[in-house]
Amino acid sequence: MYRISLDDEARALFDLTEEIAKKELIPRAAAAERDETFARDVFLTLGRAGLMSLPYPEEYGGGEQPAETYLQVFEQIGAAWASVGVGVSVHALSCFPLANYGTPEQKERWLPRMLSGELLGAYCLSEPHAGSDPAAMITRAVRDGDHYVIRGAKAWTTHGGHADFYTVMARTSDNGGKGISCFLVPADTPGLSASSPEQKMGLTGSTTATMNFDDVRIPADHLIGEEGQGLAIAFAALDSGRLGIAAVATGLGQAALDLSVEYAHSRETFGKPIIEHDGLAFLLADMDVAVASSRALYLAAARLKDVGRPFTHEASVAKLLATDNAMKVAIDAVQVLGGAGYTRDFPAERYMREAKVMQIFEGTNQIQRLVIARNLRKRV
Fold this sequence. Notes:
Helices cover 52% and strands 15% of the residues. The protein is built from 10 helices and 10 strands. The chain has helices spanning 8-35, 40-48, 67-80, 82-101, 104-115, 230-266, 278-306, 312-337, 348-358, 365-377, and strands spanning 121-124, 140-144, 147-158, 165-171, 180-186, 192-194, 208-219, 223-224, 268-269, 272-273. It has a 4-stranded mixed beta sheet. It has a 4-stranded antiparallel beta sheet with strand order 2-3-7-6, with no helix packed on it. Strands 9-10 form a two-stranded antiparallel sheet.
C-alpha cells in the first residue's frame, strides 16, 4: 500500500499501524463480522498506541498530525477492518466539537480521556425523519435552571449503546437551523438508552442503534459552543468526517484490489493464471485506477485543510468519488473471484456489503452532489 510520508514521525505511524493491523485487526475481522461482535477492546488498543487522537492537540494527549498523515492511517485501518476504520473516523468526528469549540475548562476535563481511547465517542445528528435534513430535527433541549433536559431520539448512531459519551445536536429554539445546539452527554446519564441494534447487511462488527433521550438531564456546562451554534458545528465536523470516510473507503477498495490481484495470480484457466488474460487484466487495471484516484482526491482535500483553506467542496468530492469507487471495486472483486467471490470463504462478498453503506452515511452521495452543485453556483 503506497504511503506519502511527510517525515520520520509519519513513517513511524504508518509502520505502527501496519503492525497493529496485521496482529490485532486482520486476524479478528472475519469472525467478528460473522458473529456481529463489537470489539471494544480494539479501540482501547488503538488509543493506547496513539491512533485514536492523531488530529488533535498534543497538550490534551493528541498526536497533532496533519490531515495528510492521519487520513492515511485511517485508510490503513479501513483496509484491515472496515468496521474499525469507520469507528475510528466516527470517534474523531465525535471529538471534533469539543476540541474546536469547547472552553479550555471543558477540554481539560474531557478531552484527554477521549483522545486516549479510554472513552469511546458517538455522534448523534440524524433522526428517523431528519437524516439528510438535520435542520428539521425535533429532539429538543430545554433549559431548566443550571441544567438542560433533552427529549427525543437520534437514529443511526454508530457505537450506539457501546459509546462512553455522545456528541448530541438538539433544538434549543424554533429558529430553524439557527435553533440547534451541541451537547456532550455521558453514556451513564439517566434517561439515555439504546434501542435494539439495527440488523445491517454490512459493517456488522460495528453496532448501530437509535439512542433515546427520555428527559435526559445534563448540567448547562455540557453545552459545547453557544446556543444556536450547533448546526454550524455539525457541518464543520462533517467536512472533516467526510474526509475520514473517504480514506476508509479507499482502504476498503485497496483491500478488495489486493485480494483480486492475489487471486488472479493463483487461479489458472486455459493453462495460465487468469491475470494473463487481457479481459481480466484490464478489469484489474480499472480497479487500480479507481483506488489511486480516490486516494489522490482525499489527499488533495487534506492538503487544503492542512494549510487552513476552505475544503468543504473538496471533502464532498472526495467522499463521493471514494465511496462510489469502493462500491465499484468491491463488486468487481466478486466478479474476479467468480463463484468463489460469492461465498464467505473469501472476504470479497463482505467488502461488497461493507462498501454500500459508505455511499449513504456522513451525507448520502446525493447530498454530496447537492453540496458540490451549491459551491459551483457560487463561482458565477
